[in-house]
């Protein structure tokens, strides 16, 4: 297994070892002791919820975060391909307003570790994609927040210029508006 650091503190790409032959493949997608050590996760940070989403080509989900119950996420694609984006939304951070994008697919088997407190979103590049992610806190519908996918301050380069969005994802505020509302990120 190889761990690749990104430009955002704690955000890491996981390239697991894949054992394949003419029958198919085998890959370990989570092993507590190994992942905790290699990702530098602290004791007590554990996964409490697994999610699975299926989306069609061009769908963009995000950029989401939870304000009071921030979730760390370990994301992987079991079918298809996505462009996964993590944005630093903490005004106190030296990388505030920066983002990283990573291609995750059923072929590359990559995973993306996103520590609590970052905004997260993805866009589907294949006909459809099944995305699974482990979360370090429970989903709380009343705590869900977001940042505009097309925020000019973030200037994310999405692969598909005209995404398919939910009404909610189309209406998230910009970072500037969040900051003007005196939104304070809860430090996990």
UniProtKB/TrEMBL annotation:
Reaction equation(s) it catalyzes: dTDP-4-dehydro-6-deoxy-alpha-D-glucose = dTDP-4-dehydro-beta-L-rhamnose
Protein name (record): dTDP-4-dehydrorhamnose 3,5-epimerase
Looking up InterPro entries in the UniProt record yields: RmlC-like, RmlC-like_jellyroll, RmlC_Cupin_sf
Q: Which family does it belong to?
A: Belongs to the dTDP-4-dehydrorhamnose 3,5-epimerase family.
GO MF terms here are: dTDP-4-dehydrorhamnose 3,5-epimerase activity
GO CC terms on record?
cytosol
List the source organism: Microbulbifer aggregans
The residues annotated as site (Participates in a stacking interaction with the thymidine ring of dTDP-4-oxo-6-deoxyglucose) are 139
* Gene behind this protein: rfbC_2
Per the record, the GO terms for biological process are: dTDP-rhamnose biosynthetic process; polysaccharide biosynthetic process
Protein keywords = Isomerase
Q: How does it assemble?
A: Homodimer.
Q: Which EC number(s) does the record attach to this protein?
A: 5.1.3.13
